[in-house]
Amino acid sequence: MTRGLRSHQQRLAGVVDAIATGQTEARDILAAVTPGGGKSILPVISASGLIEAGIVERVCWVVPRDSLRLQAEEAFADPLWRETLSHSLSVRAADNTPDPSRGLAGYITTYQGIAAAPDLHLAEFRRHRTLLVVDEVHHLPALADIDPVAAAQETEEDQASAWSRAILPLLECARVRLLLSGTLERADGKGILWLPYRKGPKARTREVELDAEGWAVVGYSRAQALAERAVLPVTFGALDGEASWRDEDGNELGPHRISGLYPDETTRPALFTALRTGFAEALLREAFLAIRGLRARRRRERGLAPGEAAQGLGKMLVVAPDQVTARHYLEVVRRWIPASQAEEVAQLATSDTPRAHELLAAFRLRPEPSILVTVAMAYEGLDAPEVAVVAALTHIRSRPWLEQMVARATRVDPHAGTYEEQRALVFHPDDPLFGQFRRRMETEQGTLARRPKGGRRQSSLPLWLLDQLPPAREGITPLASNALALRFDTLRPGPELAQGEMLETPSAAERRLRARLGEMVAIQAVEDEAGASGRRGGLAGPGLYHRYNAVLKRVTGDKARAQMTLEELQAAIGWMERNRLGDHLHLLDGDPRYAWSARKRQEWRPPVGRPDRPKAGEARLT
After folding, report:
1. Which CATH superfamily does the domain covering 234-491 fall into?
2. For the segment 408-440, what is each residue's pLDDT rounded down to a tens digit?
3. Judging by DSSP bridges, how do beta strands 91-93 and 58-63 pair with one another?
4. Is 192 strand, coil or helix?
5. Across residues 31-46, what is the average pLDDT?
6. Which has the closest alpha carbon to 467: 404, 361, 394, 405?
7. 7-220 carries CATH number 3.40.50.300
């Protein structure tokens, strides 16, 4: 089972085997894996081993965003991992409708989904022995009810705490728990839900108790990921510049340099201005030229025509400071692309973008779009190995946040050639705050959970939600900025496993089969309406499609298409291929909503060559 797995995946497989064979009493597993280091396969390893051993019956995988539900499905559907782990499990991306697993090995939901319907999910955990996987658990703060430090802080409960409160009963009911995170610290200094803590080596600190009783810890540092070539080295392109702005009193300040050895009172206003004025376009231009040059070179090496789309050419991710600026960046980038290609090549995905999740999926899985502009929606967990260039036009300087953003470019792309031929390129403002992050990036992530220092209180919202907030003004009016110098530094950080060709995920198959079933009902309704004047004796009329849907529902045991399992949808399609719904209108007898249909049915006789309608019991699926 462990052949072909990386070191942390092998260690997790060993923990799962120890639980399955009774060699350990541990039921809590913490996987602290460097961003992009390969967390997505860990739930598959755990579920396949524990379900086969009979320790659990189902898996529930909880993710922080809706777009990650689809990636979680793909992890179970990946043919490479199905072969490597010898598993045949499937899970589905579920909403808050009953029976979320639909006969499969489990389901994926979100923090928000559980908070919206906690009783539904708790009932599932009581009904089945469940492996609970909590992805990016650092988003969930410890609760005052169970954490003395949180109780002492006496903070008002926010949305993230509400998620913790909804998920806590599931943690308590789960047979085995797998907690995943790329960082063991929160920006607000709070502890993380469910993790065991002990007093830290310094005053007013505490740290995760990695050897706590009942716990198994699997770690994977950036150094380990690089040694195993699980991640790519990164070249940082730091662009310096000057910025001028007007403060809240109307005083014009600047120009001030963006760079500096240490942060001062001009650092954040200068950065705020630069990201919304000419400096940003200059940095964006450098990133655009870099991705254009990379794609052109790879096309030449493969003998592809200019403009020809293919996988493995490289893509660019642009991370903007807010939604308004993101839309401006998109307009700027599209001006540099031929008009006939601009809309397909460059796309926008923010929390208020129509079809944002479809755009993210296309960016991940298809040759186009090759440029995606976002705010924070795609920074964490986005599995797009083709991303080779990141334009980091964001004001956020939280180390965990920046590590996640950089990790979007450090995945190894299986279509881009050898490991040595690939690199990640991140363009960013050369401000001292980013410089501090960059210098710390090679060190291991600490386990200390410190209380925040004095000063302005940081937002307790998960940072991936910040793109839903209005743009911050910080009391200044940006006036102008310009770029001065670009320098490059190469460091070696980290990301994730290449994926083979994907099988169709359960939720995608359900959507396809539901659409196919609806199409088949519509076709029969249209055909019967067309022949109504003669052969059908007036059977057609307003609402025939809905009456036929009602007949199909009776045939399938009064189960709506939205509640059917994959097998039930397939069986319904098979029945539709052999039967006409018009021959089974007798199933609506006794239903006052369809009395008109019953009268018309009595007037109708089947045409020559068509069998008489079957008896009531003969219509149902078996």
Report:
1. P-loop containing nucleotide triphosphate hydrolases (3.40.50.300)
2. 898 899 999 999 999 999 999 999 999 888 877
3. unpaired
4. strand
5. 88
6. 394
7. yes
